[in-house]
Amino acid sequence: xxxxxxxxxxxxxxxxxxxxxxxxxxxxxxxxxxxxxxxxxxxxxxxxxxxxxxxxxxxxxxxx
Amino acid sequence: xxxxxxxxxxxxxxxxxxxxxxxxxxxxxxxxxxxxxxxxxxxxxxxxxxxxxxxxxxxxxxxxxxxxxxxxxxxxxxxxxxxxxxxxxxxxxxxxxxxxxxxxxxxxxxxxxxxxxxxxxxx
Amino acid sequence: xxxxxxxxxxxxxxxxxxxxxxxxxxxxxxxxxxxxxxxxxxxxxxxxxxxxxxxxxxxxxxxxxxxxxxxxxxxxxxxxxxxxxxxxxxxxxxxxxxxxxxxxxxxxxxxxxxxxxxxxxxxxxxxxxxxxxxxxxxxxxxxxxxxxxxxxxxxxxxxxxxxxxxxxxxxxxxxxxxxxxxxxxxxxxxxxxxxxxxxxxxxxxxxxxxxxxxxxxxxxxxxxxxxxxxxxxxxxxxxxxxxxxxxxxxxxxxxxxxxxxxxxxxxxxxxxxxxxxxxxxxxxxxxxxxxxxxxxxxxxxxxxxxxxxxxxxxxxxxxxxxxxxxxxxxxxxxxxxxxxxxxxxxxxxxxxxxxxxxxxxxxxxxxxxxxxxxxxxxxxxxxxxxxxxxxxxxxxxxxxxxxxxxxxxxxxxxxxxxxxxxxxxxxxxxxxxxxxxxxxxxxxxxxxxxxxxxxxxxxxxxxxxxxxxxxxxxxxxxxxxxxxxxxxxxxxxxxxxxxxxxxxxxxxxxxxxxxxxxxxxxxxxxxxxxxxxxxxxxxxxxxxxxxxxxxxxxxxxxxxxxxxxxxxxxxxxxxxxxxxxxxxxxxxxxxxxxxxxxxxxxxxxxxxxxxxxxxxxxxxxxxxxxxxxxxxxxxxxxxxxxxxxxxxxxxxxxxxxxxxxxxxxxxxxxxxxxxxxxxxxxxxxxxxxxxxxxxxxxxxxxxxxxxxxxxxxxxxxxxxxxxxxxxxxxxxxxxxxxxxxxxxxxxxxxxxxxxxxxxxxxxxxxxxxxxxxxxxxxxxxxxxxxxxxxxxxxxxxxxxxxxxxxxxxxxxxxxxxxxxxxxxxxxxxxxxxxxxxxxxxxxxxxxxxxxxxxxxxxxxxxxxxxxxxxxxxxxxxxxxxxxxxxxxxxxxxxxxxxxxxxxxxxxxxx
Lengths: 64, 123, 910
What we know:
By secondary structure, chain B is an alpha/beta fold. Chain B is built from five helices and five strands; from the N terminus they run βαβαβαβαβα. Chains A and C meet through helix 1, helix 2, strand 2 and helix 3 of A and helix 4, helix 5, helix 12 and helix 14 of C.
């Protein structure tokens, strides 16, 4: 019962690792709103999504 | 009425000597030359005493002794076993099987006659 | 605002008092069995001890200089949290199963309960902790300094002395000692402490958020205003990756390093693993802990940018959190900001020193003291005071080290730079730990080699340059390399340049470390205990049933005494009551302790003093040491080894069976020979006694009966004579046989003519032939029949066969035929009769000793000794012939023997 969430969380960690690092960050670096770079917004945004996804994976499993 | 003694041995000379000794002592003597013959001799009227050799063809003396003691009507027959094998174990085996005495060959003729008389309560 | 600094200090002291009260309450609740911390929320908040003064003050400093560059330190732990239910859970399971007390204990237990591994990990942890502790000291001291500078009160403090850092150190040391060494059992969870630091996590989070909100909405018109003003101030680059002044590799390595640090830092291992009350708490913590990190970091950039916009410099940014409220007249907010920083720092110091001092006592000092036989510690009645003393000294040592580092180096470096040194240091535990729970092949030598090498690389590439930065060592060392060797430049080792120094250090040290753990493990052989522990760790889920590791003699009383000495009497007695209840009977002190009890005692001791010490202590009580390799083999790799073992056992039992069978056969053969000898003697005795009986009887009859007639007398005398002859023959035969069999027969070997010998035998046997009226036919060829033999013996053989024949032929009408003929290389002599013959089943038996033929036709017993044919066979075979019985043409038996034809030469020589 625990194995599937463990694997999914590990996959999430892998995805997060890719999203938090190069070359993804190189793409983000090119996106500029006006003359304001968006890196911090991107990082905090992805971070929030990752935490939300983890919470969803874990808490949903708890309800089953 | 004279007491009857059965001599059982496969050695002719020994039978001869025992027969002579028992007759001289005043007993009525019957002879058997093997175990089978001895048992057949018992069928009619059992003797008062048997001089039974151990080493014989057909049944040996132990077996004859055992068979005799198995039959209640032959209880009255006293048995003296004679053997040329003098070992203690064999002596005990004979007595255990119901023999009344056990005499080792060669024996003293006088002592044997005395013993037979004693066992038959003859003067 | 002269009241500010004293008020802040007063509030701080009140706050510390509150922590104490909270901790004691938590402990009392725990003792009462009503834990207030047994839920994932307190667990998560305790994990947030990760956020120290570094986060509270330092992150703003980094953000001011490098924008988003502060974030990898929190992204790493976020990734780690996603692995809570996998990799981290396994570590917890292992730690709980084996009563692990610290990361040093964990590593030591994994690598064969090695004292070397425990000591080395402790040293690395201590050395790594020192910069980190100094960071906290620096932050608090700076904060105090700032409060004094802005709020007056210098006059108050002047009397004490200007060294605020030292005062802070001493206060924190006293606080930690009071706080952290109240209990002896290191795994008896410090529930009060956990409650206190969870509370501190709330305090620091709220204080930081308060400052963040004040800056964003109090000093600015919200985040967009702040952003716009930052753009105007030319600070936009802080929002770009280029602004982090990190490369892609730096970013990645710092993320990785932070993820490892969130588990491997002594205090993190303490709260994540040791203080965990329920593994299930990991579940919710896997997203709550990242959430905490997320929230506490939200206002880092706003505060940093706000500070810069409002005229602060990058160099001052470490104190923006405190300075911004201060300069804008928010005294109470400033006091709260200081309080938040203080809580972040004290939480770190408390847990870190508890963790490190436990390691120092359990994994470094006590094992050494216990091994020093001269001290006789193993026999001391009560060691709890000593252990507590060592722990207190450990706390002092760590804090004093931190203070000295701060004095020497800390002044010149930013908070975060100092923190990274610690991160890279404890990351050296990662290879031996990760490989240790995933790969059974990792062994003690590998762990020691890897850790030692990684530690040295860390010292060289990161700690050494920090001394250079502090001006304690010449600049040329970093700029040009030692002795001007460019390749050995500490921050660009072997030409690996262009990296952040921390990333550079991490790449080199972790590669060397991991490489050596793997390589040395592959090249060296682990001990049996290491292999066993490896399996227990790697296959922890499968091997929950802890095997019995001790075998030997230990008295129950001796074990109890150990427990009393290390755990105290009440704890020891509780354990003993439990064990007695489990067995359903009281445990007598003189009774031998079984393996289970010894195991239990070791585990309990391990909880208090660590695996390495516990092992040493129990070994002193258990004679017979550990189990031997054979028994270990059984436990190891169960199926295969057990199969192998049983196969060997089977083989052994087969061999044993074979040997037994052989022995039995030999014994039976001996017994058979013995029985044969006995039988032979008994038979000889019988055969001798029988004629003697007749002789004696008739002699006595003749003596006692002088009245016998002459004929009878003559008859009896003849019997005596014939029996005497029989006796003589018997004695001769027995002597002959024994001489032949023992090889002492004096053979007269000479050439002879067999025909002549047969004739001689017939002449000798003429008497008996005539006596029995036997008709004899003789067929002997005229030509010579040369043989080589003992004449007399061959004559004896022929005579024996002849007299045997005579015994069995009918009377009258007995016929005997003697024939000699040549058959190839041998002469054959046949003595045939018309007697009853010998049945085929008896034809071999007649040659046995004392075999008497049955079915005797004569009424008289055969007069033979029963040895004649036995002797004949011995004689014939002596001269290379053979003897046997077959059917006769006359209707009876044919007794035949052969002798080899003598060579021409031999014949001529004759």
